[in-house]
Amino acid sequence: MKVILTVAIVLNILLVSAYADTPTERSNEDFPTKQNEKNIERCTQNLVAIGKALQTYRKEHGKLPLWLSDLHGKYLADENNLLCPADENGGKPSYARRTDPELPVSYDYTQFDSGYQELTAEKHYIYGDVIPIVRCGHHANEDFTCLNLSLSANIYRSTAAWAIYEPEAMYGGIEKAIATLEIKLQDAPDDKRIFELYPALVRLYVETEQEQKVDVLVNNFKSVMDSEHIKDNFTLGDMLEMVGRHREALQVYEGLEKQDLNNRYIFQRLAKVHEKLDNIEIAKGYHIKFDPVLALIGKSVPDFSATDFDGKPISLRDYRGKVVLLDFWAVWCSPCIDEIPNIKKVYDTYKNAGFDVIGISLDHHKYEARDYIKANNIPWRQIVSGKGWDSPVSRQYNIRSIPAPLLIDQEGRLISHNARGADLERLVAEAVRDKSTD
Ligand SMILES: [Zn+2]
Predict the structure, then answer these.
(1) CA of 198 to the centre of ligand 1 (A)
(2) 49 and 136 assigned to the same domain
(3) Residues 21 and 161 both lie in one domain
(4) Does residue 108 sit in the same domain as residue 124?
(5) How far apart are CA 149 and CA 259, in angstroms?
(6) Buried-most residue among 49, 184, 229, 266 (CB within 10 A)?
(7) CATH number at residue 397
(8) What is the pTM of this model?
(9) How far apart are CA 109 and CA 95, in angstroms?
(10) Distance between CA 383 and CA 357 in Å, rounded?
(11) 407 to each of 61, 177, 271, 296, how far by Cα in Å?
(12) How far is the CA of 138 from the centre of ligand 1 (A)?
């Protein structure tokens, strides 16, 4: 009963605030605005129903279901509760990898694999029952990014995307968030598991112009952190950078560099902080140390020879005269999978204008890539070694993280090492046009 009451109150506040924001002078955008409000209202009702079903399920099973479709039937009678009216695809979460295997579901849900279960448990320890468990990302035209359902069946809006935990949204306002985090850190200042609250609180202090409180917090953290530990030093660096103390952050990262010469994430930190200090050339050097592929931009990409998925020989040289995307990907890489529809779109638009794609799978088992390629009708050629990071082509190109989409021009020179999203189409359009006007 208490849960239902909480939900009802939150729902009320949410609806009141949705209408309070409506301008009094209506323009010709009247209809979409009203429609958006209706969508939010309906989506909120869905989340209320899902929240109740999850509570009951959890009470009975002692844990959450793997998928939201597991609720259907006994716990959730109406499967339409799993569809947000603003979801134009009629049942697709924001991230393809989280697609429910049984029913069309518009919502992102956290429990489907052990990695997310661990993350949820970790965040639950840090923040409590306020953490989001189901999220809707289909109301993109609003002033919020996600509509969230918390573990305690509360519903709230946040501007954070998936897997970013926003205390001001979760605790119902920035002042409440500050007060809560201050208490948590006072109670257990040296509990490593909640160390991420230090930079979270610094950000809230900066946003509420209470920079004077930051010094105390930074000093408190210095007294409990492990100065040999890379993660703790990064946390300290985050805090210093947020308040513009870049020189001190630089010292922290330089200290780490002396300890461990080969950690590329230290190079990445050094690159960024040197950029902020306007040391552009030094920053460039560290960017290349972080990602050696960068050094190839504008230069010829070395050729490779391999065997494709169908057993035929394939080399980069075969593609001379075409603009080609070398897409290093894996089924386990969510951002890689999320990008596939965009690559497909660009491929369909420009394949007759001289654009092609070669996929290089970094999956650890051949069947994982094969099943995905077949199920999703991916039309371009693939190199699937089943050797993960030891795939010969990825080793040859020094690929250390994915997604790594390398876009190569007609003469075999690297155009971009990060051709994704809207950039991909823009860069491909430019590259094929350059050729046709030559
Ligand atoms: Zn929605």
Answers:
(1) 32
(2) yes
(3) yes
(4) yes
(5) 43
(6) 266
(7) 3.40.30.10
(8) 0.76
(9) 10
(10) 11
(11) 49, 44, 23, 11
(12) 5
Residue 143 lies in a domain: yes
Residue 263 and residue 120 in one domain: no
C-alpha angle 414/419/421, rounded to 5°? 170
In the block, tokens 């996929």 appear at 359
Question: What residues make up the domain containing 316?
Answer: 305-437
Number of domains making up the chain: 3
One-letter amino acid at 92 equals K
Cα(83) to ligand 1 centroid in Å equals: 8
What separation in Å is there between the alpha carbon of 369 and the centre of ligand 1?
Answer: 32
Q: How many angstroms does the Cα of residue 84 sit away from the middle of ligand 1?
A: 4
d(CA 11, CA 214): 36
Neighbours of 245 (CB within 10 A): 17
Considering the domain boundaries, does residue 417 fall inside one?
Answer: yes
CB 189 within 8 A of CB 216: no
Residue that terminates a domain, selected from 170, 189, 209:
170
137 and 89 assigned to the same domain: yes
Distance 321 CA to ligand 1 centre (A): 46
**Token pair for 5:** 């009451």
Of the residues 170, 190, 215, the one at which a domain ends: 170
Please check whether residue 300 lies inside any domain of the structure.
no
Q: Is residue 152 part of a domain?
A: yes
**Quick one: tokens of 196?**
């991420």
Each residue's pLDDT tens digit in the chain (438 positions)? 333 333 333 333 333 333 333 333 434 445 568 888 899 999 999 999 999 999 999 999 999 999 999 999 999 999 999 999 999 889 988 777 788 999 999 999 978 778 888 999 999 999 999 999 999 999 877 778 889 999 999 999 998 776 689 999 999 999 999 999 999 999 999 999 999 999 999 999 999 999 999 999 999 999 999 999 999 999 999 999 999 999 999 999 999 999 876 789 999 999 999 999 999 999 999 999 998 888 899 999 999 999 998 999 999 999 999 999 999 999 988 889 989 999 999 999 999 999 999 999 999 999 989 999 998 999 999 999 999 999 999 999 988 889 999 999 999 999 999 999 999 999 999 999 876 655
| Same domain assignment for residues 278 and 312 | no
* Same domain membership, residue 200 and residue 133: no
Distance from residue 247's CA to the centre of ligand 1 (Å): 44
Residues 228 and 125 in one domain: no
Could you tell me whether strands 108-109 and 414-416 are parallel, antiparallel, or unpaired per DSSP bridges?
Answer: unpaired
